[in-house]
Amino acid sequence: MTAQDLSAVQSQINVWDMAQRQLDEVSKLIGLNESLHGYLRQPKRVLEVSVPVRMDDGAFRMFTGYRVQHNLSRGPGKGGIRFHPDVTLDEVKALAMWMTWKCALVNIPFGGAKGGVICDPKAMSMQELENLTRRFTTEISIIIGPEKDIPAPDVYTTPQIMAWIMDTFSMIHGFSIPGVVTGKPVSIGGSLGRDKATARGCSYVVDEAMQELGREIEGATVAIQGFGNAGMYAAQLMADRGYRIVAVSDSRGGVANDRGLDVKGLTAHKAETGSVAGFAGGERVDNREVLEYACDVLVPAALEKVITKENAPRIRAQIIAEAANGPTMPDADDILFDRNIMVLPDILANAGGVTVSYFEWVQDLQANFWEEAEINERLKRKMVRAFRETHEQAKSRGVSMRQGAYCVAVARVAEATKLRGLYP
Question: What pLDDT shows up at residue 12?
């Protein structure tokens, strides 16, 4: 199968069906009753909005945006907003469901939500992005708020975009409400450590997995697909801890060096050229080759559905840490489990971001901000505990780490939903 054929197959796979299938499998494992299972299969609320935006040429252009709240039994909704030309409602629903499980797994008092706008931010000016962000915020303001639903950054959204959301929501209500959004700049209520939180949390659970497998960290090899926020910081943090980064790629290409890549030089090259492609410190590789590169740890840090039943047999890592959301297809999960490859699922491996977002929200509500060392230590405790609970479930049930994580998370959400009951 060619890369083009594989891309076509992947695009036909519905990510919402994938998310529901994962829930279905775990519901059987934990004996979830039919009524609760049916309740958790559907989102609580789906909002679709039309977003008129004044462009730089003076014309109006219409965009479509979504905000989905999957489950709010454990607290306000929490989840990012992505600006991307390929955003779909089913994708946003799936991401909202995954956020429900992610928040429950690390045991923070949030439910799952997600948002998205169908647009190409790379083709828009800063003024157009601001206009889009402010109008979208206005349209979804009826369902967001510090006690209702707290957005955050996601694909192609930034701290600046979060600042515009916070300001727009605050202007609507007539006073500053920093707790409406997380991932803000520190100067307006953001948290120290938030920029590296996803990568740092990922590195903590990889350390735990290495220890569990009896492997040494020093010199262990790592391949990273995706060199955005999560991938770049994961490379930096893991290199600092003694791992050897041997392959990295982004949307425009990649680079590999078995002796180890110079991460600082690679980061500077990316900042200068916009891509890791062409970096002089290694040989040229593509995204497919990075996924299949010989390494101890593979970190998919790009988009969904990149590990499939077609390429799963060729993956040579012993640990896969899902810094991205939904990178592994269910059929691929089965193959990887049979091959004794430990997959640290997205709801565990990339939960550092939402965990520090929770810390940011708490700090905003209290107007009391913590030092970065304290934040990192709190994050480590959360991530290590979540890994241990996941591993215990997986080991005791003889299932994958993903199913172990879901057993923990779904049981917590189901318990909260059952205890609260139905109103009216």
Answer: 60
Q: Does 372 fall in a domain? A: no
- What residues contact residue 245 under an 8 Å CB cut-off, 6+ apart? 221, 222, 223, 224, 235, 238, 239, 260, 261, 263
Interhelix angle 126-140/159-173, rounded to 10 degrees, is 50
The sign one gets for the Cα dihedral 371, 376, 381, 386 is: positive
In the numeric block, the tokens 């497998």 are attached to 213
Burial of 219 (0-12, 13-18, 19+ CB in 10 A): exposed
Q: 257 lies in a domain?
A: yes
Which one of 93, 102, 114, 382 is the catalytic residue? 114
For the residues 139-167, what does the mean pLDDT come to?
A: 97
How far is residue 282 CA from its own chain's centroid? 28
Domain around 329: 197-344
Phi, psi of 202 (to 5 degrees): -60, -45
**196 belongs to the catalytic site:** no
256 plus 326 within the same structural domain = yes
Task: State mean pLDDT over 66-71.
Answer: 98
Residue appearing with tokens 């999560």: 230
